[in-house]
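Key result, reporting period 2: structure in, sequence out.
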């Protein structure tokens, strides 16, 4: 392969991966209780990238099963949210690699960022290969298209992680119900975003992106709340009498 032919591919990969790495760095900086195992984080990110290729054939089947475009986008939301959770379940939840409640959000967001990185890269490679005369414009257009999508993946998977974190010290039944609610919220947010983008004009699209950024702010608040679950649990263990008085009150 000639160098000139590989340059668009290199640009596409960098542009697709870099935003996810920056967001991952930001989220890890937010977790100041302790550092997550780097190998587990790397595995989550890489598996998040890998499950894109599991989602693709299911999305192809979904497209052929449902002729209605709205149902197709709902199906895509279901597939992508479940494969992302499946990746985190296999690597973290099933093997019990969480040390505190907020870890659920950290790992879910990490998987989501890996998924978004691969999804963005594949999309951008398609754009730059078809528009090699103006690579920069193609990358800018593609990244603008996926800014909202990447944030949406963070919000949706972060919501699942929060529901797991919120019930970290509860029984199995409550944990299961919380997980069901978290996945339902994630699928609903994902589907609502896709449908809003597809069915909107440029002005409405700006409004949708505004709501997405509002969702990111809410997720920041939930992240702090998830960290507080561990702190409140530790306080309860240190002073069970005070905790019982609060419950009675």
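The corresponding designed sequence is given below.
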């Amino acid at each position: 392969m000639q160098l000139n032919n590989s340059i668009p591919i290199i640009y596409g990969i960098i542009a697709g991966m870099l935003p996810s790495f920056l967001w991952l760095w930001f989220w890890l900086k937010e977790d100041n209780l302790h550092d997550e195992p780097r190998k587990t984080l790397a595995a989550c990110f890489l598996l998040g990238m890998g499950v894109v290729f599991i989602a693709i054939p299911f999305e192809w089947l979904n497209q052929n099963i449902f002729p209605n475009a709205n149902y197709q986008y709902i199906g895509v939301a279901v597939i992508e949210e479940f494969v992302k959770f499946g990746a985190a379940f296999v690597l973290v939840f099933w093997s019990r690699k969480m040390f505190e409640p907020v870890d659920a959000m950290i790992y879910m967001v990490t998987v989501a960022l890996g998924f978004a990185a691969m999804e963005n890269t594949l999309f951008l490679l398609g754009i730059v290969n078809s528009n090699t005369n103006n690579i920069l414009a193609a990358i800018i257009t593609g990244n603008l298209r996926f800014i909202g999508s990447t944030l949406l993946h963070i919000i949706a998977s972060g919501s699942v992680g929060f529901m797991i974190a919120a019930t970290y010290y509860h029984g199995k039944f409550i944990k299961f119900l919380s997980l069901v609610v978290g996945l339902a919220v994630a699928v609903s947010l994902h589907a609502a975003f896709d449908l809003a983008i597809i069915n909107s004009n440029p002005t409405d699209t700006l409004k949708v992106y505004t709501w997405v950024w509002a969702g990111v702010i809410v997720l920041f608040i939930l992240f702090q709340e998830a960290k507080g679950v561990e702190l409140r649990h530790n306080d309860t263990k240190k002073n069970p009498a005070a905790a019982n008085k609060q419950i009675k009150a």
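Residues 123 and 142 are 7 Å apart (CA to CA). The radius of gyration is 20 Å. This case is discussed further under Risks and Mitigation.
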